């Protein structure tokens, strides 16, 4: 699908234009959207190319946020695919064709087109190779620890520290087969043979994952430049950008009435639907913990990527135990659908986060100094759990990954909440998390390492 007619007036000849190509799922959209806003703040036109419904959702999330003046350089390019097609691969191929068509159009109105694309999109955007004034960058939405750990298992990198960690955890250390599945090696080979990449972007910061970034630069990236850019939500011109809202969510009003570090936030992201039996156990565990909580209860987005529906539409059919909300009234709050996670984690009353340990959630929690009770569900999350609990030591595991097929009992949930929120062990984790938060704040401030690395990347795409 060609670019919207309404966008024609912005297609003046630019020295450099950026096309952002995310994988069309929320956990992949968010970091690239925030990176788009940062790049746009440097007076560079950025075109965010994704499905119409995804762009609509991003616009909804921006409502009420005090916008940067340079957001005028950010343009949403709405793409559509045939809704009658049920095959996910065919849908993605159609999306890839539309992306390539739009990139060809953009390339005609700029001296250089910079495409920053999610690594998962390489199968679908091969037609970009025919654009003569093109520069491409890989974007990895996972942590450097995950990328390094999985590569090590596939290509047999030797690392003494990692060997010690694997030996220490034994069967509890995740495997590629139990997380990403049997096709990861095939994908990694395809990725390493991708000819269009001029560099690699990792969603992290060096004070957090420097060791793994250095190893990746040696073993994985084939001498391509590697940038560590993040946390994106803190690199916008105003790091308090997402806290300057004209309206306040009801859960923030709840937090305003609580003591410092007294509330645990419970949320499992957009790709998880807990079984009803598990919901019942979680409710019982929270109730019996006798600690204050905010619990986001919602269904996962459709496995077919819910291509024509907004994320906001998840009203949730999940049932809570009879009388649960009445029994915890005043102590606990249940939120259906979307909740302002970053603002909740940044509130002084939030002292812990029970999470699926998706990397976006980990980065947000770490940047706000909040320790994590980790409950991984799939893909990279078990590796992130190891990084949070055994490397950074700012969290605990609710349940062992090797027992992932079991229902997590209320007793384990109650124990995790009490440990994180009411013990010296939990206080020590919270203190380490606060120390990391302070490092991040210094790193993203002007003159800090993360800020310098981001400015180096901006210089690279504008001067090459």
From TrEMBL:
Keywords: Glycosyltransferase, Transferase. CDD domains: GT1_Gtf-like. Its EC number is 2.4.1.-. GO terms for biological process: glycoside biosynthetic process. One of its GO terms (molecular function) is UDP-glycosyltransferase activity. Residues 15-86, 97-233 form the Glycosyltransferase N-terminal domain. The keyword Phosphoprotein does not apply. It comes from the Eukaryota. Pfam families: Glyco_transf_N, UDPGT. Belongs to the UDP-glycosyltransferase family. This is Glycosyltransferase. It comes from Anisodus tanguticus.
